[in-house]
Design brief:
Blueprint (H helix, E strand, L loop, with lengths): L19 H9 L3 H23 L2 H18 L10 H59 L4 H11 L5 H8 L3 H19 L4
Keywords: Sigma factor, Transcription, Transcription regulation
GO biological process, one term: DNA-templated transcription initiation
GO molecular function: DNA binding; sigma factor activity
């Protein structure tokens, strides 16, 4: 097969009009020289249609090349009664260009969605860490406002997991006293932290 001309470059030296229907018939039968003539005749049209849709020259050249390969492969499917060869080629070019734009948009949308998910996840993790740290600082501040017995009782019960009886034994205090101190301490903690019931 002759080396095709680059897109956008036509054979301006051609003097007689060519019969594209006849050429397409030859292409359908595997005639490589006929395809070279078809290429020269249709490449500028195909590229022009594609570049209007895709708007990126490099991608347009790639899509136009794919269209020309489609014309070679599908030449046997062309029916003259359905329309001119140029109309058929233009339809294929337009469809391919639209497909490329949709594919590129879908890929961009996926990338954007992934970036948004990653950003949200990172933001949520940082936000959660900050919130936990602030709450811890507030709890420490509120615990420092309790009496010594209240602070010890609450700390043993809630941070070490001891029962009321175990707290009473650890602090060598009567169980009713521990229960009262813990209740009073928890009320003060609740008020300090602004928790509403």
């Amino acid at each position: 097969m002759n080396q095709p001309l680059p897109f956008g470059v036509g054979d301006s030296g051609r003097s007689a009009p060519i019969d594209l229907t006849e050429i397409m018939d030859k292409v359908a039968h595997g005639d490589k020289q006929a395809f070279s003539a078809l290429y020269d005749a249709l490449a500028p049209l195909v590229f022009g249609i594609v570049v209007k849709v895709v708007r990126d020259r490099a991608q347009s050249e790639e899509v136009a090349q794919e269209v020309m390969i489609d014309l070679w492969r599908q030449a046997a499917r062309y029916r003259p009664e359905a329309g001119a060869v140029t109309a058929w080629a233009a339809t294929i070019a337009h469809r391919r260009a639209v497909d490329r734009v949709r594919s590129a948009q879908a890929a961009a949308d996926r990338e954007q969605a992934q970036a948004a998910r990653e950003h949200t996840t990172a933001f949520d993790e940082v936000s959660e860490q900050v919130e936990t740290r602030l709450e811890s600082e507030q709890v420490r501040r509120c615990l420092s406002g309790l009496t010594e017995l209240q602070r010890q009782a609450v700390t043993l019960a809630y941070y070490r997991g001891l029962t009321y009886r175990e707290v009473a034994e650890a602090l060598r205090a009567p169980l009713p006293t521990i229960k009262t101190r813990m209740r009073d301490g928890l009320i003060r903690l609740r008020d300090c932290m602004g928790v509403t019931t």
